[in-house]
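Hi R.,

Here's the chain you asked about this morning:
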Amino acid sequence: MSAVFGTVSEFVEGVEEWPQYVERLEQFFAANGIEEEGKKRSILLAVVGARTYQLLTSLVAPEKPGSKTYGELKNIAEQHLSPPPSEIVQRYRFHTCVRQEGETVASYVCRLREVARRCNFGQALSEMLRDRLVCGVNDERIQKRLLLEAKLTLEGALKIAQAQEAAEKCSREISARSPVTVQMVKKSVPCPTGKCFRCGRADHTADKCLFLTARCFRCQKTGHIRKVCKQQRNKSGTRKEGVDMVTIEDQEGEGGVEDEEEYLTCLQHLRVHALNKGTSKPIVCEMRVDGVNITMELDTGSAVSIVSEDVFSHRWPRQQLVDSTLQLCTYSGEILKVLGKWEAKVEYKGQVARLPVMVVKGSGPSLLGRNWLEHLRIDWAAVWRMVVRSKEELVKSIVEEFKEVFQEGLGTINGMKAKLVTKDGIVPKFCKARPVPYALRGQVEEELDRLTREGILEPVEMAEWAAPIVPVVKSDKKIRICGDFRLTINPALEVDRYPIPKIEDLLATLAGGKIFSKLDLSQAYQQVLLHEESKGLVCVNTHKGLFRYTRLPFGVASAPSIFQRLMETILQGIPNVIVYIDDILVSGHSVEEHRELLRRVLNRLKEVGIKLKLSKCSFMVDSVVYLGYKVDAKGIHPVADKVKAVQEAPEPKDISQLKSYIGLLTYYARFLPNLATILAPLYKLLRSGVKWTWTTTEQQAFQNSKKLLLSSQVLVHYDPSLEVILACDTSSYGVGAVLSHKMAEGSERPGALVSRTLSAAEQRYSQIEKEGLACVFGVKRFHLYLYGRRFTLITDHKPLLQVFDPHRSISSQVSGRLQRGILTLAGYEYKIMFRRTFEHSNADGLSRLPIQHNAEDVSEEAPEVVLLMRGLQDSPVDFAQIKAWTGKDPVLAQVLAFVRTGWPEKEPKAQDGLAPYWIRRAELSTMDGCILWCNRVVVPPRGREYVLRELHGGHPGVVRMKGMARMFVWWPGIDKAVEEMVESCVQCQSCRSSPQVAPLQPWAWPTRPWVRLHIDYAGPLLGRMLLVVVDAHSKWIEAEVVEVATSECTIRKLRAMFARYGLPETIVSDNGACFTSREFTEFLKSNCIRHITTAPYHPASNGMAERAVKIVKDGLKKLGTGDLREKLARFLFQYRITPQSTTGLSPGELLFGRRLRSRLDALRPNAAERVERKQEAQKRNHDMTAKRRSFTEGDDVYVKVYKKGGAWEWAPGCIAKCTGPLSFVVQLKDGRYCRRHQDQIRKRSTGCLEEWIPTEDVTEIPNENEQKVMQEHNDVPRPVGAEERLDDYDGAVREEAEQGGGPNRQVPDVREPEGRPRRNRKQVEKYQAGFS
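And the predicted structure, written out as tokens:
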């Protein structure tokens, strides 16, 4: 068996990272030559440890780890144990890494390389390390030396820093100084006299004395006995107020100092003695040492000025000390360990000096000794007034110093703006404004005016994004306006993923703190200005118009991360300060240090313009509750409220409460051993027939079960890396909530449990309002755990899924209580889920055994409901009657019961009359025995007639009656009832306005021009009238000027038009006297024209004529002054050549079938000339290779005769007829005729006549047809010149066929009738123009 090199221990999370463990394991494989994957997997599973093996089993379930390969197991574990870190966070840690006290330069650079390992700096790693070394070396001398180098590399910077570090160390070793006297004591050390100061014996040291904790019978102090007590009594028996100074004079000879130790009086003893009655407080001076304000106790008995180690490390953490050989000890013989000294810049009352400061081990007060008094002139009058003040006085002075920070009003953070970024391809969403109840409208408008005055809102005219507002009535009856951004901008945002700090990391910063101050920002988010590009994303739509936020509003998904980043940036660099969103906590080791840190924080806030809410701040307290933990000088402790709901849960009073409590325990039964045994006495009470008796046995079992539930086996500590679940439930008298973690194996384990009883008013809430109250109660109680992270909200009330759905808009129909709950949850990122009651027993049990809630009872009525009730008091039906009628109505009584206790899961039958209420079950609530839908009272059937008559008072009409009803009352079918009442009212119907216009019915479009004419008179214009006639087909307008609009004038003008264009079939006119007279009617009847008149006083029926009148009037006005007839002619011509939008053609083109020529036609090139030029060019090119030949009738020729398939041969023939310049009819020798082009004919010599016998496949035009054509041609008589015209005509018609067609294509011999003139038609041009 070969030897094994090395061993691999099990993996321990938190001690070692998984990649490092895998690296060690693979080195083990390499050292032992292990290459087989199966063997690697087996070794990994064998050495990884039981806890990690269990983790791997859970990660690969339902498979087993042995079924995976080594590489798969390694990757699965790495993804879980060491997921890829955020590059941004890693770089943040790198850039904030500074050299620690006592850390060498080499160690610091090594730590920097470790942090930079996951920063992905790439080629810039050396430069980043160099920069961080220079900025974070935490030594002013080294830093200055490095900054002197012009071209500094990492290697050069490291050499310089290490050399400087070595030189300082050597300098401290060779420096020395003579001993002086100082007054300080802090730590027990061996006495230089050789005797123990506690008992006077010399055989042991003071720290090993048996009287270390003994009490002196003389001074009553602990740590020494009476015979060595330094406190003597005077003759009168009273204690001396001062202390004795043990003075040792310096004895210097030629050889130097013989004794370098000087004994000091004990200041600590003086301070303890001063606490007794009759002593004075320490005298202090405010000094500024190296830029840091510090309070020092004035001590003329101390030869040097000193500070303790604790004060030095916290106030001057980067200051380097120089070694000192000075030895200090107390009057009792204790030697004080001197850590070093440094030369400091001391400032006091305008005086500046460089003075030495000694640093001693311990945590005592800072002393101002005689060596400083020699160089500084002390203001003794002020010194006597400078006594150590109480905490209340210190707080008062700080608040007075920074009164701008605590002023009322809204702060504005300077130099920083929030920017919202949307996802790519997002379409803006615009929501319409929601109706605001009239009772709240005045207050809403006042709040909008206030927000506008303060610059939080600004009005805009247009917006792409718009969210509706929801007015919320606060406890002080004031209105708070919130934008519902859940459906508009939140889903479209690229949410800022700036990491919210973990609670554990924040609280670790407070370690060692003894005094704490907690600061709360006033209207935190609204102190942040929005970037100009982001303002358009947060617009709100109100009944007063559109407004946009200029500051970061509440309810935007990115707000927590944006504000966290901003606050960390502002307070960066101040030690012992943590910030979580808008909560700031400052800690300190002493009053002086804490006051200085608090002043630094407040000064930063003052510089950037942040304001705090003084009433919510606490200063200089010994303990504080922060982020769910109690923090004090002893450490961090869980708050008892997290388990108070279980510890103080009352014992069950009946079977129902006992079942709920046992259900709570059963929910976590898998974590509770021996649960059945402990609960055996309680189970007996659940048996049927057993009488309820609660004795000491049951009480003991109840207490033991609560202890078991609160054990560490069930409760877990809050872990930000695990999924958070909040389960909430309510009963008729209490609410409960459980904050749980979902573990890796899928189980839920509670971390905190809360409950409370409902107040008398809350017990009268509807069931859905109680369930909503439970959710809001749980979220508020666990705000510090839930805010800024995503969690799951569990309820057993299904209607809440729609009401609290974060992706749905806030319904204006839900009650005001639920609206306020929705707005409270709008600031959180959550998803809501339904869980059946029997699966929801953890929260259900807490709600049925709540702890007593002693808070003041909430208001029984919401403010908007109070206003509603006041409106109903003056009506003929009062609130008491509605309550009585509701209880007596069978349907409403059942609805009232369902609203109070919960609706059934199945929808009721339609015949029960509950369907309208079932649909609105999530929006119904109760108050004092009445049912409310939103803020509207549900009126029983007996009172509906009275309410309708009240609404109808003053006959307001249907719309106003419905608007009034929607403010106060509702019942199924109320809209129809309102309509029926108005329709049955005679007064309302007799005074109704015109009905809604009828659908448009256009006139049928005639398919032919001048078939239907529309006529009307326009004017008077310049004292004259215009008869306007428009053709319905072409839109051709005729306008004639007349002096007066009479039937005679109308007939005369129409007769002239008919003479030009013909008679129409129909004329449409209004009912004017000139159109309805007997004379006009006879005129139309005699011309067989149908006359249609429109309805009186309805011009739209003859809309075409009305439109034509308007066109003519507008056109004449635009032409300005001048002769009316001239302007009319110019306008009509321009109109008639302009294409119409309806027909697409001009009126003239539709009427005449051609375009009217205008002056613009002269701009168009002549197409005929262009064609002629092209033809001439073509002829010249062709004739260059052509030969002119001529044939006359009777010439002997050869002609091409074509066969089947396109072959041809020459055949003899004779020219029978010239049909064109190049076209001939040829008679073949066999008597047949054929028509041929000149290119298909050649001359034949007369001497070459021979017999031609055609082949069988010769195909020609039928001989009979040619003969017929020739016969007709010879028989028809023609006038002189007709032959030439015919020839020209035939040539033009057949030109294409003869040049491009085949020889067998027949072209009929077409002739014009004799004497008929030719008409050359030209194509109508598309562009017209007027004339002057």
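The chain has a mean pLDDT of 76.

Let me know if you need anything else.
M.
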